[in-house]
Amino acid sequence: MQSFDQTLPILITGGSGYLASWIVKYLVEAGYYVRTTVRSLKDERKIGHLRRIAAAGPGRLEFYEADLMRHGDFNTPMRGCEIVIHTASPFLLGKINNPQQQLIDPALEGTKNVLYSASEIKSVRRVVYTSSAVAIYAEAREIMDQPKGTFTEQNWNLISDLQYDPYAYSKTLAEKEAWVIAQSQKQWDLVTINPTFLLGPTLSGRTDNVSISTIQQLMNGELRQGAPQLYFGVADVRDAAQAHLLAAFTPEASGRYLISAQTMSILEMAEIMRDHFGEAFKLPKKPISNWLLYLIGPWLGFNHRFLRGNLGYVPQFDASRSIEELGLSYRPVEETIVDTVEGLAE
Ligand code: NAP
Predict the structure, then answer these.
(1) CATH number for the domain including 319?
(2) Ligand 1 pocket test, candidate residues 64, 67, 87, 111, most atoms within 8 A of CB
(3) How many domains does the chain have?
């Protein structure tokens, strides 16, 4: 892959999203000609912050309406672009009434629609695709089977299904489909970004993102009686956004890039919050006992199978490709958590 023409437009799908908004902001601030798709141009709550980013410049930002489920919606915004960054995909956890309709169809059909458009629009040369660490692993206890004690880009989620973590299933199916489509043609290449759990400030002010709601649960005192002994990889949303830019502009970038700054427990997050904000929030001071969690887990949104697969296991992630090949630097998780809380408190 050769270097790109930096004067051509760059398309980011789902610009209203928590992660995509940062990608749009960084590109506009760097002076690029940016296009983004949103579901509705009338929803100011979702795109008001993008209009302000556009007004601040110096780059140019154009909006297009597109739905993942509508075939051909992405052709017009993609015309003339060499680089496409596909982030749009539903991110829902907890109780989901119709996982096929709410998660699998938009993730999978959206992937097909965007990538078929990429093949139709002859200017496209690279697609940066937002996958997830949940396409790499399903349960923290799988770490026991990893020869080097870490998850890497070699791993795939082989466990999730329509009933058991359908969000992870949607990301796994969709990323696999992306690789199949990419390998069926030679016009553009595919680079995937697989972030662990993202935290950090939100540009839109919206708090309906899953990432944000976890910190909100801590701030609201919902876990004050004790934190579940759950550990996950964490990365800053701003670093994940930079990873997309690096993947777009590094000609040699290829394959999957796992993005993770550090593995943390919910209790460790609460401790960071207490160190910085004192007693401002009713934070947990101890882990909740496992037997109690099994009792009340379903009420908190954790079913027994999930608890068996995750409780007490500490997953580790090898993000060295992102550092060595993309040149990504990670900010400390303390900074990420403090910035998230300060943003929400505002
Ligand atoms: P988000 O704020 O909920 O953004 C999701 C985006 O997808 C929104 O722009 C949403 O549009 C769009 N979208 C959903 N369904 C759509 C449809 N049918 N047609 C068109 N657009 C649709 O979530 P996020 O955290 O930024 O996630 C962005 C990407 O990062 C996703 O692919 C997610 O799987 C991935 N990811 C997120 C995390 C994390 O911890 N946040 C970690 C790893 C990977 P609306 O604004 O109109 O709803």
Answers:
(1) 3.40.50.720
(2) 87
(3) 1
